[in-house]
Structure of Capsular biosynthesis protein:
Amino acid sequence: MEETISLQDLFKTLKKNLGIIALTTILAITIAGAVSFLFLTPIYENSTQILVNQEQTEAAQLTNQNIQTDLQLINTYSVIIKSPAILDQVIEQMNLDMSAEALTSKITVNTAENSQVVNVVVRDEDPAQAVEIANTTAEVFENDVRELMNVDNVSILSPAVLKENPSPVEPNPILNMAIAAVVGLMLGVGIAFLREYLDTSMKTEQDIEDILGVPLLGVISPIKEKAELETTTSNRRKAAELNG
């Protein structure tokens, strides 16, 4: 006989295991919050902007051509910014106790589409150091690119500035706790249905029919407790004596 589960049965299972579902959800949120606030190191982000722009030394009709040339050079500049030739000088000037590879992992270089502005984004555990790394990297690049590429079309547009009360970009406790709540809820629901699946006891007449595959012919009434039977018998005797 094919076993089917109705929507009502599903709701009954969830209602019966509501405590477990709530417990796993609260536990997951608590763990995520504790890890986010107590164990994960805050990471701060800051950035500086570099403008790539040719000097106006040619006729105005060549301006568009110069812009296209600058846009093509930006990808090259992005590679140069994160190269050891630049980062080794940054490490030396700042007396950083890290390798160029480690510093590279802290720096991200990106540009907006068809933009002549290069963003140098730095992430670090120390917000002040993130600002200093971003500005020093931009300054070293601005000075060295003139010799490396024999160009004079790079200038710092907007240096990084340390805010009064910087907020970390990582971790995000609210997001982590929200994700944990969803995971905990799913885990609780999974445990609820697993318990129901592993529970092979027969609780109703319908369970007997479903498991044995035969129709139910009769039901034995519940047997009363001994004390209840004695009380009933005693009451009957008293009533018989009064009537007699």
The radius of gyration is 37 Å. Residues 173-198 form the longest helix (26 residues). DSSP finds nine helices and four strands in the chain. Strands lie at 44-52, 107-111, 117-124, 154-158.
